[in-house]
């Protein structure tokens, strides 16, 4: 795996560096107190900001002291952290305004080769406006108004840090993901033939099967090696789960525990196979299970089992295809395959489809390609203007994979109708290669520090 990019937070004592550090790492790892000088050593943690993953360093307050003193040695540690980082976040206190030490730090940062993002902390309300305006004089570009304590200005901070901390997936990392075991869960209603199918995959009677519904109670994970047509072995972790009945019909405490265990197995999986009983077709409970899988962001395949004994197979397949597209409009066109746990037919095609689906689920589109598509999409269908006021969409970026996740930036995006967001999601799926997996899209608007509270 390639290393995470590194962000160093720097500033004079007591401007809120440790508070911001704690917010970025999602834990209270750094001590926070009103007294200056609480942080002395560099503290590091893995951070996540709207899906952007990076390593963050909380540094000691930068003070102008003799190098042999404790504050001087702390300053040397801070300087070393900045020089080793991919970007530096210079934090000032918007309420207190600029100090001579802020100006000295800015002069030093301008001599460094590390990109610098300037943020004015404690900018909530009107008390920070003067300090925010003063910060322009530091010569480090436009300051971002944030509140580390209240989480305000996070979208703006993300936007400024993204060009410096975005990590492209390299070939070695992609190969490592493909070499990792495929986590494949088999789910469905009771007696759909899940355990029989797993036994057929393994080539042995590893799991108890029979005509009685509900034999499987615990989710069973089994490691398996599958060989493709080119003779390449692929590691697979098969997860057989208990049947999921409609919630209202589940009264037995043990069955409730079994269903809960099956839902946890879905959380653990990368690709989920929803197994249908080919002698019964698609039922409402199947759609509920499929929707729950997609809501969890997992890649989904629907497989029709007992295909060897299904009546009118052509009509059955087309009927299920149409019902899926209508009942799961958010996942129109998801893979639909046929298998037989009894004869083993269709198993190779099922695993091939699961491996391909995982690759799509884990894929990342380049920022350039994404924004070229985005510009064309909004030119073809501009966003609406509710109340006569224009919604301006600025750009879009992919912030995560597994499932593919995107953030849309612009002004007044909170007024975008759901229909327009669906238009964008459908475009991403159709034109950027994500048609078969769930896609998540969030909209973020920058905070206006001058807007009346």
Question: Which helices and strands occur, and which strands form pairs?
Answer:
Elements: E1 6-10, H1 17-25, E2 43-49, E3 52-58, H2 70-83, E4 87-93, H3 100-110, E5 116-121, H4 129-134, E6 144-145, H5 154-165, H6 171-179, E7 182-187, H7 194-202, E8 220-227, E9 233-240, H8 253-268, E10 271-277, H9 284-295, E11 299-305, H10 313-327, E12 336-338, H11 347-361, H12 367-380, E13 392-400, E14 405-411, H13 418-431, E15 440-444
Parallel strand pairs: 1-3, 1-4, 4-5, 5-6, 7-9, 7-10, 10-11, 11-12, 14-15
Antiparallel strand pairs: 2-3, 8-9, 13-14
Summarize the structure.
This protein is of the alpha/beta class and 453 residues long. The chain has helices spanning 17-25, 70-83, 100-110, 129-134, 154-165, 171-179, 194-202, 253-268, 284-295, 313-327, 347-361, 367-380, 418-431; strands spanning 6-10, 43-49, 52-58, 87-93, 116-121, 144-145, 182-187, 220-227, 233-240, 271-277, 299-305, 336-338, 392-400, 405-411, 440-444.
């Amino acid at each position: 795996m390639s290393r995470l990019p590194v962000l160093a937070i720097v500033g004079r004592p007591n401007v809120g560096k440790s508070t911001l550090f704690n917010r970025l790492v999602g834990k209270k790892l750094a001590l926070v107190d009103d007294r200056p000088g609480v942080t002395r050593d560099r503290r590091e943690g893995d951070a996540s900001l709207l899906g952007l993953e990076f390593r963050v360093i909380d540094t000691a307050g930068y003070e102008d002291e003799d190098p042999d003193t404790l504050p001087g040695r702390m300053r040397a540690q801070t300087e070393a952290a900045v020089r080793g980082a991919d970007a530096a976040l210079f934090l000032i206190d918007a309420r207190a305004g600029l100090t001579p030490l802020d100006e000295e730090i800015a002069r030093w940062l301008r001599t460094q080769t590390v990109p610098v993002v300037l943020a004015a902390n404690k900018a909530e309300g009107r008390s920070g406006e003067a300090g925010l305006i003063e910060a322009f004089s530091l010569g480090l570009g436009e300051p971002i108004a944030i509140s580390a304590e209240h989480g305000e200005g996070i979208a703006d901070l993300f936007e400024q840090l993204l060009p410096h901390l975005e990590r492209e997936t390299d070939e070695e990392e992609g190969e490592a993901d493909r070499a990792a075991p495929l986590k494949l869960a088999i789910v469905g209603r009771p007696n759909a033939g899940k355990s029989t199918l797993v036994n057929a995959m393994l080539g042995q009677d590893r799991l108890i099967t029979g005509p009685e519904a509900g034999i499987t109670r615990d989710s069973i994970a089994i490691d398996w090696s599958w060989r493709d047509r080119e003779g390449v072995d692929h590691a697979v972790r098969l997860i057989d789960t208990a049947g999921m009945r409609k919630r209202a019909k589940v009264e037995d405490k043990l069955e409730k525990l079994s269903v809960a265990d099956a839902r946890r197995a879905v959380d653990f999986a990368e690709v989920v196979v929803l197994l249908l009983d080919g002698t019964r077709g698609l039922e409402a409970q199947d759609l509920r299970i499929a929707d729950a899988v997609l809501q969890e962001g997992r890649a989904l395949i629907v497989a029709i089992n007992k295909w060897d004994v299904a009546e009118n197979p052509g009509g059955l397949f087309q009927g299920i295809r149409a019902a899926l597209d209508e009942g799961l409009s958010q996942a129109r066109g998801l893979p639909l395959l046929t298998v037989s746990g009894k004869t083993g037919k269709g198993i190779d095609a099922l695993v091939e489809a699961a491996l391909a689906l995982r690759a799509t689920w884990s894929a990342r589109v380049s920022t350039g390609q994404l924004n070229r598509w985005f510009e064309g999409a909004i030119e073809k269908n501009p966003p609406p203007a509710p109340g006569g006021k224009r919604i301006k969409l600025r750009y879009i970026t992919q912030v995560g994979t597994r499932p593919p996740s995107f953030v849309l930036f612009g002004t007044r995006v909170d007024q975008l109708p759901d229909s327009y967001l669906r238009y964008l999601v459908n475009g991403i799926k159709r034109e950027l290669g994500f048609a078969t997996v769930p896609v998540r899209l969030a909209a973020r608007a920058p905070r206006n520090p001058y807007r009346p509270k």
